[in-house]
Amino acid sequence: MPSTAPGTGSDGVAVVPGRPVPDQADPADDALKARHRAMWASGSYATVASEVIPVLGPVLVEACRPGPGDRVLDVAAGTGNAALPAARTGADVTATDLTPELLDTGREAAEQAGLRLTWQAADAERLPFDDASFDVVMSCVGVMFAPHHRRAADELVRVCRPGGTVGLLSWTPGGFVGQMLATIRPFAPAPPPGAQPPPLWGDEAHVRDLLGDRVVDVDARRQSLEVTAFGSPEEFRELFKACYGPTVAVYRSLADDPSRTAGLDAALDDLARRHGLDDGGTSMAWEYLLLTARRA
């Protein structure tokens, strides 16, 4: 990967010297990505990452097994849940995300921990890196939110060197977060044409189809994260209502509709009760798919 600092193309996408400037995205796609950036910058994703799902990043890093000197790319890295533990292995880590505000938070955490990483704003569907630039390309509940799955998968594979590792950790459609996203969907504005549901990345068959014969030695496992951060359905709902970008965005769209707001409150409370926060229960199981593969 070139060592010189990246510049910026005419569309605002960071460009690494040695790789041509990406083709200009169409206006509709630019507008969609702008909405995604704003959505993830709203609320406080850092709170969710650090208080609810902090162990997921280390789980993915352990599965990808980077080592000293390995070139690691964390796509849709957010605040660095996987990037920071990867850096602790001695790997040379680049963390990218569509939302610079999340990277700023991750950069501060890395500085406090004495870790050195490269932080770069980038679209997962248009990564500004040369082909075969990285030994490990990974994403922890991140790239699944890119709206065009095929484009994102093509980029993950393209920037991974032959023999390198692609590692993905994604919420499953039938697990708690997949069901939460399904619960809020009827209350949200209609998605743009061509955008695919994020939890499909938690469907093994879907991911295998996306990656195709460009990868070998696929290892896919459904696992569960035990979540004990909430003492009641209302506590869960209020934290996600305030902190989690997709939920924040839906509630903001309902600001002038108290009836539908109350309906979404009730739907999320019911979902949490059905997944463990009922009759004094405080433990929830959030299912995810952990998939690793070797670039052919």
TrEMBL record:
Gene3D superfamilies: Vaccinia Virus protein VP39. Residues 73-166 form the Methyltransferase type domain. InterPro entries: Methyltransf_11, SAM-dependent_MTases_sf. Keywords: Methyltransferase, Transferase. Signal peptide: none annotated. Residues 1-27 are annotated as: Disordered. Its EC number is 2.1.1.-. GO terms for biological process: methylation. The keyword Methyltransferase applies. One of its GO terms (molecular function) is methyltransferase activity. This is Class I SAM-dependent methyltransferase. It comes from Aquipuribacter hungaricus.
